[in-house]
Each structure stands twice: as structure tokens, then as C-alpha cells.
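Next comes the chain:
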Amino acid sequence: MAKEASAESFNSTSINWYPGHMNKALKAMREDLKLIDVVIELVDARIPYSSKNPEIDQLASGKKRVILLNKGDFADPEKTKLWVKYYESRGFLVACVNSKEPQTAKVVTGLVLEACREKIEKDKARGMNMRPVRALVCGIPNVGKSTFINTLAKKNVAKTGNKPGVTTGKQWIRLNNKIELLDTPGVLWPKFEDEEVGKRIAWIGSINENILNTYELTLGLCEFILKAYPGVFNAKYGVEECEDPLSLIEAIAIKRNCMQKGNVPDLERVVAFVSDDFKNGRLGKLSLEVPGDRS
């Protein structure tokens, strides 16, 4: 049986996830920033606005900033270009990356050194031996920070996992004689004022699923995709699409022979793998927002 829909299924206050370690991490980050030259913030390229933590802007005020639209291989490339321009126009150094690709290291190194060029030149003018640039790496849970760190370090120095809360403590990683990275736990903010932001963060897997009505959330995701990217479910699952997301889920269940006793469609099972397919980019290159939509 499908879960009974809650009256607060999409209420932004009902899907907040702010464990105690996140509050501690933000306080620690405030102290760490005294040692930092540049802040690298990873956002999910599918939701570059919703996955950007507003707390970071306050904490990192006055610091050089780099924004990386990670999981770029999961996102709509045309919409991603709009987001790159959007953040560049606001003074950030920006790149769209796939943290699993080796060339990401070269791109990020270039951005970090560009951000700190003035500091590096001043140190050279003073005849000082160049100490490594110190970069803090931050972002909300499940945007791929640990994979990003491991790719740059060319070894597994950070725990990875396709769920929030894998990184729970900070660690320094020296990449080379030019850059040191400070990896930090993924942190959200205490309250989502915008209901759509909360839903989109949940859709990409940045909130613990144990506190969510994943059934209702996934129906909402399907409804969005049906309108914004018609044909996606037909291409992936071979079903005829319709406007009603529940009918879509039932059609996928029948097509994939996901049935319970009595020949009843197993909607929970279908919702689980559709949600997982989206999170892992198996539905194609999809973006859930554009500049001016939520920004």
C-alpha cells in the first residue's frame, strides 16, 4: 500500500533536517575561516540556487569565493550555462564540473590560484616563500564534496556515499605545494523559508529520507519532470506518459512487473527506484530551476 499522504507533505517546516552536528560545524567553520584564503562552495548543478547555503554567504563575507556546479553531467547543459553566467555576474569564480572526472583537479586549481592571485603576487614581492593557498570546501549534504576531495587528492582521503551525513568532521588535505584543502561536513540551514527550496533539496537526496514522505515527494518530482521534460519517462521506462504522476507510477509498475499479491501495482517499490534513478542521473540531463525562477 502507498503511504497515506500527509497534510504537511510539502510543508517546508516539515522537511527541515538540522542535526546538532550541523550547528557545531557552522560554528567551527566560522573559526576556520580566519585561516582561509578562499572558499570553494559546491552546489548541485540541477538546483544551483536551492542547493546554495545562504549561511555561507554570511560566514565567508570578505573572502574570495569559488562556486562549483557539481554533477554537471546530470544537469541540463543549456540551463547550466545560464547559472554560470548568473553567479559570475555576482562576483564569483564559477565552473561546472563532474567531481569524478580527473580534469576537475586542473579546473579547480586554476580557479583557486586565480582567486588568490593578488595574495600570491604580494607574497612574491615581499620575497616570502609561497605557503600553500588554504581553501575551505563546503556545501550542503550529498552534493559530492567527498568525491570531489578524493579526485583532487588522487586518493581516497574522504568518505563517500550517496546519502547525507557521510562526512561528520573536518580534515586538512594537502594537494600539492600550492593548495591545501579543508574539508568540512555538509551543512544545511535551520529553516527553509521557501517550500520549493525544501522540496528540491529533498529530491536530490540532501535530507535524511527517514524523516520524509518520500512517496509524496517523488510524485511531486514526477509531476515537475512531466511538465518540464516530456518524454523522459517514456524513454527510460517505455511507458505512455500522462499528466497525472500517480497514473505514471502505476504504468511503470505494470511495465516493469512490479506487482504485489493480488496483481496490485507495488507503487512504493516504483517510487523508490524512480527517485534513485533521478538522484543518480539515470533519467537524463535534467535541471529543476533557472535563474529568475527561485533566485
Confidence is low (pLDDT under 50) at residues 1-14, 159-168.
